[in-house]
Amino acid sequence: AQTVTQSQPEMSVQEAETVTLSCTYDTSESDYYLFWYKQPPSRQMILVIRQEAYKQQNATENRFSVNFQKAAKSFSLKISDSQLGDAAMYFCAYRSANNAGNMLTFGGGTRLMVKP
Amino acid sequence: DAGITQSPRHKVTETGTPVTLRCHQTENHRYMYWYRQDPGHGLRLIHYSYGVKDTDKGEVSDGYSVSRSKTEDFLLTLESATSSQTSVYFCAIRKDMLSSQHFGDGTRLSIL
Predict the structure, then answer these.
(1) What sign has the CA pseudo-torsion B59, A96, B55, B31?
(2) What are the CA-CA distances from residue B17 to residues A50, A102, B12, B80 (Å)?
(3) What are phi and psi of A65, to 5 degrees?
């Protein structure tokens, strides 16, 4: 079974600075997808960014980018120019490309605080 | 907005009572999922559905049942609620094999 580990329960960053959230995963598969979801206090689960394992290029979405290291099974999220609205829980998630149900396996989450 | 509505948004009930949570979608997505969220565990899959009357178990399915009699509705039932089932429950949908999952706003369930 796949596992996803987020080793940082809490992180803080100064507004306008850059912060990196860590995620590692364990799998024996070669074809899969990785995701970062944001959960603000409103409780919504918002997709931030997605990475296909077969792609060597790291995904980027505006101020959000990932560092995908397939051999190391590492998938970190970098937030540049942090804003107060970035304060939230962030969850890393894994999805097999071969499983019929394609369900997500989540890490335990990292709470990001942004200081003004 | 992925067109997902969860009801109720909040519920408080007593141990031993039956509880049904509803997930309704407006976009005819094939795949629907129920997750529970607990501190330190992220979200964990309870059950999922890949079509009308087609369902399968997830990681934490004990004590839960599901039904999907129509494409748009996916029901999660706790036959006899226990305090360990106090949690926030999320429904999610996915259009096809390549799509990402989109989540509803969650239901906070408290069992006293």
Answers:
(1) positive
(2) 40, 32, 11, 5
(3) -145, 160
Which of B89, B100, B102 is best to mutate for the A interface (most A CBs within 10 A)? B100
Query: Could you tell me the sign of the dihedral formed by the alpha carbons of A42, B36, B6, B73, in that order?
Result: positive
Over chain A (116 residues), the average pLDDT of each successive run of 10 is 91 97 95 94 93 92 96 97 97 87 89 97
The string of pLDDT tens digits covering residues B37-53 is: 998 788 999 999 999 99
Cβ of B90 and A50 within 8 Å?
Answer: no
Tokens representing B14?
A: 């007593």
| Angstrom distance (rounded) from CA B70 to CA B34 | 16
pLDDT digits (tens, 9 = 90+) for B68-108: 999 999 999 999 999 999 999 999 998 776 778 899 999 99
Note whether A27 and A53 are within 8 A (CB).
Answer: no
- Contact between A104 and B90 using a beta-carbon 8 Å cutoff: no
What is the C-alpha separation between A48 and A33, in angstroms, rounded?
14
The rounded radius of gyration (Å) of the Cα atoms in chain A is 14
